[in-house]
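Handout, page 2. Input:
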Amino acid sequence: MTLVEKADRPPGGPSIVDWHAAAQVAGHLARPGPQASRDELADLVDGLREAATTAVPHVLDVTRMTPAGAVRPTALGSVYVVDRARWAQANTEIMASLTDGVAQSLLADGSDREPHVPQSAALVGAAQLGSVLAVLASRVLGQFDPYSGTTSGGPGRLVLVAPNVLQAERALDLVPDDFRLWVCLHEQTHALQFATAPWLAGHLGGRAHRLLTDLSASSRRLAEARVTEKLRTVGRAVLSAVRGEGGTLVHGFLTDDERRQLEDVSAVMALLEGHADVAMDAVGPRTVRTVRSIRRRFEARRDGAGGSGFDVVLRRLLGMDAKIAQYRDGAAFVRAVEKEVGRDGFNAVWAAPENLPTAREIADARAWVRRVHG
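Output:
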């Protein structure tokens, strides 16, 4: 399977995590994929590449969106078919880009000296992050990365995790060609979102960067607190996450301002994920013959049907239940807006950052329609 290329722009200054080590940890801990013959693997890789190409005109037609600038409608970005270790590597590159400068802003002391992150601290961060990525590496089917420039095609890159696609279609007893196209319809919708709104990657990345800086500052304050305070804070956060009270493990460590920032970023993610879900189903059975069966079985998979109690707890701690809610809340928002002002009216969301829905508007589509359309 194809090795994902390195990000074009390496992070500058000190890093809060040893990203190379994190990728190695994730690659070492990630479970191997399902067994398959050489011919089956070749068919899988070729099938995913073909599905990624086939999906583009369908997505353009069903969304009625137009890529901006020089992006060619037939090529929304480069396509990479990868294994689980390479997916983890790609995500360490994305995270390195998004956290570039975070350590520098946190450790700056006003002098001309270059801030320094102890190697031991960077390696601890790598071990923690690599462990989480190893878990997620067996679950993610595909991902569009808008933060890695490419030399051909268009901005960003589409990453498809071949062993996970194969595992899902076997476990759910799906028609392979239909399922692979269905997955690519979702991911190519993401590619089209960023191609239609060239400002979106910078806007979302900037907000995420500010939130990460604030969260890192809070983490530093917690690290400097007394042991009893640390234990109380961690204990409350873990109990809240496992019980499903107030979101993920991260929520237990947030200040009120950080929580508002996270809600704003989550609202944009809900829009992106929900819109992609609506688009992938809107193509209908003429394009994906078994689309209704795929959606029904995949929803059961998202709900954790057949999962163990440990799996449910793990999903909550890692924020995976919050991710599932993003798909559903965002899809409900998109459908409600289209009911009010049609698909072209909904597409006003891509015109400018101020047209993005707030966290409140994701739950109240009419409020967004009133604000944007009057």
